[in-house]
Amino acid sequence: MTPTAGLRLSQLISKTLRQAPADTETISHQLLLRAGMIFPGAAGVYSYLPLGWRAFKKVENIIREEMDRAGGQEALFPGLQPLELWQETGRNTAFGPTMFSIEDRKDRRLVLGPTHEEVVAQLARSYVRSYRDLPVLVYQIQNKFRDELRPRGGLLRGREFSMKDLYSLDADEAGLDHSYQLMIDAYRRIYERCHLPAVIVEADSGAIGGKESHEFTSLTPTGEDEIIHCPSCTYAANLEKAQGQKGEAPTDALLPLDEIATPSIKTIEALAQFVGVPTSRTLKAVFYSVDGKVVFTVIRGDLDINEVKLKNLLKCNELRMATEEEVAGAGLVAGSASPLGLKGIPTMGDDSIALGANLVAGANRDGYHVKNVNYPRDFQVDTIGDIASAAAGQGCPRCSAPLQAGRGIEVGHIFKLGTFISQKIGAAFLDQEGASRPVIMGSYGIGVGRLLAAIVELHHDDKGITWPLSIAPYQAYLCPLYGDGSQVGEVTEELYQEMLKVGIEVLFDDREDSPGVKFNDADLLGIPLRLVISQRSLGKGNAEVKWRTEKQPQLLPIEGLAQQVKALLWGS
RNA sequence: CGGGGUGUGGCGCAGUGGCAGCGCGCAUGGUUUGGGACCAUGAGGCCGGCGGUUCAAAUCCGCCCACCCCGACCA
Fold first, then answer.
1. How many beta carbons lie within 10 A of that of residue A26, not counting itself?
2. In this structure, which CATH number among 3.40.50.300, 3.40.50.800, 3.40.47.10, 3.30.420.10 belongs to the domain A474-571?
């Protein structure tokens, strides 16, 4: 006998909301709230109510099955971790205030785990002795805590959220590459089973650290991530990481410097227009406060600084735009700042400053600019590299076709960590030659709730959620329309038991409400298959069966309906 | 943290100094039952909090808090 997987709607703790709470914006946030699937606790913190929890568990189980299939071993690591563990790798400073930190009764500092690389490295330190112990894939599905700067979009970014995090331990780079590929394949299957199209993009590794990293992104116009992708080859990257061809090599003969008056010109656009050149013939200066010091950056005028790239190049913890006071305090003139004759301030240049000749730059004197500035003839920078944001229209770094920009939701992120954590934690093993070597790690995360929200973002219509069958909290919505003195009640009760018996997950709308109320709730809740039992069709021995995403119902005989419905569901 | 917004019954909202209201929902009774029915009668609010101004504050002033949205961060 299959365990009962039915629920009488009249007994459900949550109620549907006719209107979405006014202060919500994101569609998945609104629908999950309206459907009574989640309930807000604090900013970025939610309860999962019974229907939402069932959908959550379906996603979770798909992830679990695919991790197991890939050879992952499920475990559960502590959410509470001693701060000392984080001090061993120094990542407490990289995470900074994002980590929730508490004190126990003995004033010992603990953090609420934002991720678990340290814990796993500790495990490796204890258990991994020999190359024979490798490779290992170990994972957990557990709530993470991150005091995000700004939680948003309901389940899309919370401060407490469930994440599947798998860690690979390998003996060498080839092993890591293999583990990495296993995970890519597993992730692809997960998204497929969730009916969530996702593309893999190159990404920055951020606070997690490491050398190589990819994100899985579900492309949707409402997404929070900007993606740069090439329409003609497979290149795709997160904006933080994306590269675009900057074009325009210097061909002109270098002309002598020429200072010109540029009264009240403050922006690059105004300057270019005033001088009569494209913005790509100008130099733009931007100032940052980097760990408390002012840093001068210079980039070609048509490009924008990418702060993530800059931060990576500088290897700093805190980076923000410098304030006016800081700029003035460093002796710079905002609006006419110049790399020319600059001294005493660290300078960073985008490599685009070498592309193009005879550029217009500031004179570091209010109201003046200088023409025919050329790098490196007229100025130098301390560091030069790619610190520009790629943009649509630039050439693809692989095939030169014009790049396109799009938006997406990050639904997974994988990292080749290498050895920087294992080295610091002291997780080492003996190789075949008997030499001690640090374990090579990878880490692979999927936010379960975010995945659920992303599914709603992609699967809804104006009436509500349209869950894929694999995710829906229940497979069928049993909807009797109680007329007076009819058989509908009895027949439906019987059918309900029958459906449970054959193993269908059924939500039984046993409420005495009017048809409109019930139909609208059925649509809002997004249950894939709806069964209407009413006097109308019952008279001819039929019931109406309708897919959520289809307009027209089909009539099926009430006799043996449970089996028929099962066939429909299993066959789809 | 910077910028913007909102806090009045479960949800959506009105209420510019003088009795705290409306719609939906909820309860009871009745009539209804194929896309959010109708009538009647009810219940339900420390107007986010603290302080101030005033004879009188949801309303004016100050401080604080919470939540939402934009940015930096992230699964």
1. 20
2. 3.40.50.800
